[in-house]
Design brief:
This protein is mainly alpha-helical. The chain contains two helices and no strands. It is extended, with a radius of gyration of 50 Å. InterPro entries: PELPK1_2.
Length: 172
């Protein structure tokens, strides 16, 4: 996630891009500069020559009337009270010296005992797995569903009972 500083920088960059008038400047530059001389022939054989562009008419934008002058009211001078003096920060008392760390006494550790070796043991052979007898399974009988016709659905009588959360029937 972007930090607040980079987010602010991104917002300012977008605001500058949106506030700039680069499109108008590019259009004005295209309208006021002379057209470049067309190349005599195509530089690559087999490609057609670049067609010439039609001439752009002169600026047909109607000019705006001049801006009227506006007199701004004068702002009266205000005298501010003097800035209060900054209170001096009291000095902290000096801390006592750090006590010396005691040394750890040397300790002799007894040697690690040796692990006894395991005797070689011969295991009995693995018993043979008995063979599973082959059994033939009879075929699955086909299930036949009898055709059955259902009686017709009885019609539900219309009863004028108001349903909850529904609009009441219109009154006549």
């Amino acid at each position: 996630m972007a930090s607040n500083a980079s987010m602010l920088a991104m917002i300012m960059a977008c605001a500058l891009l949106l506030a700039g008038s680069t499109c108008h400047a590019a259009r004005n530059l295209a309208d006021t500069t002379l057209a470049a001389a067309a190349p005599a022939a195509s530089a690559v054989p087999g490609l057609p020559a670049v067609p010439t562009l039609p001439a752009v008419p002169a600026d047909t934008v109607t000019l705006m009337p001049p801006m009227p002058s506006v007199t701004l009211p004068t702002v009266p001078q205000v005298t501010l009270p003097p800035m209060p003096a900054i209170v001096a920060v009291p000095t902290m008392p000096t801390l006592p010296p750090m006590p010396a760390v005691p040394t750890v006494p040397a300790l002799t550790v007894p040697p690690m005992p040796t692990v006894p070796t395991m005797p070689q043991v011969t295991l009995p052979p693995m018993p043979a797995v008995p063979a599973v007898p082959k059994v033939t399974v009879p075929p699955m009988p086909a299930i036949v569903m009898p055709k059955m016709t259902l009686p017709p659905m009885p019609s539900i009588p219309t009863v004028n009972v108001p349903m909850p959360f529904l609009a009441p029937p219109p009154s006549t």
